[in-house]
Amino acid sequence: MDFNDSPEEAAFRAEARAWLEQTLLHPNARANLRVEGPEAMLAAKAYQRNKAEAGYAGLTWRREVGGRGLAPIFSVIFSQEEQKFQAPTGPFAIGLGMCIPTVIAFHSPDKIKRYVGPALRGEEIWSQLFSEPSAGSDVAGLRTRATKDGDAWVINGQKVWTSGAQYSDHGILLARTNPEKEKHKGLTMFVLDMKAPGVEVRPIHMMSGGSHFNEVYFNDVRIPDSERLGEVGHGWHVALVTLMNERLAVGGGAGPEYGEILEFARHTPSPSGKGMLIEDQAFRERLAGWYVSAQGYTLGKYRTMTALSKGQTPGPESSIGKIVNANRMQDLANAAIEAADHFGIIHDPSLAAMNGAFHNAYMWAPGLRIAGGTDEILRNIIAERVLGLPQDVRVDKGVAFRDLPTES
Q1: Which of 92, 113, 216, 271 could serve as a FRET partner for 165 with CA atoms 20 to 30 Å apart?
Q2: Is 317 a catalytic residue?
Q3: Whole-structure pTM value
Q4: Looking at 82, 132, 246, 260, which residue is catalytic?
Q5: Long-range Cβ contacts of 2-9 (<8 Å, 24+ apart)
């Protein structure tokens, strides 16, 4: 495996880094990915507009839809450099990473023109409306109904865990259009106007104090048939395109780096009362485990980058990275908070160690372990598609949705 950039990739990385230094090095330009509120959103939209004007948004998209038509490796390189500068990309990750690629793949040319430009410039935000209270990782088990009424569809039902729905202008919605069909075959995908009559968004208050996730209710919401993505009943095929992009977009997530926990251990007293935490043998063993995990995750990302640089599509191996990093982030953050003893209860960036990075990681990790597929689902994917182990018995396969047991 060659860890080095090609000459063309190295030139692009240097160009991207120079632009990011010019754009984000002044303090007012930065916005934490987890910070919510009007000021953070304005900063994020301003950054996205500048990014689009500089030609760094939609790097891999076709030129005719507003992209640059570059190979996927260039998008990876730019994302790597963005992370070093804490670029405020959070509000647009779902739209540009999952929703708009689906729109480009399945919508009509006039609708593609309508939606892509505003999304690239940060003028409109998108959300993904898949998960439901009774169908989380089992997306095909959803119950939200879409009933044809003339040249429109009437939507009734509920979604949950919808990231950023309270800020969104549009969303891609997967709904059941035929309960008589097998559950994977009775679905259809639509583009939803999040401000349409009958759409109600209820933010979910998280333990971090924010409201990243939401419940979304539909009460006789009308969607024109012209906003349908793909053929009627082919929604599962459309959803697979979105889910493939989701696996890559969610990735490993942000969190404290190994160097930060090492620095923390050097300046924190050991619970035993003897020396610093870095001298505690039990903690040193955990440090070694986290380091090996971080290195494995990094090498896995390099494998994905190698595939992209060769024009290949990353396989299900990318599921491994999210499982490893999300669990490591939660374990690492928990250990740091416990090591801080009674000071660990303080969740205040101005007072907590590392500006509260460990507290933020601890409270964000559970959500990351769900987003893009739960740990359990991803372990099944790895077992069946990577290791070739026998698949689980599917008692619902080939059964019409109407024949499935209902909740009591």
Answers
A1: 113
A2: no
A3: 0.82
A4: 246
A5: 2/306, 3/302, 5/77, 6/309, 9/73, 9/74, 9/77, 9/309
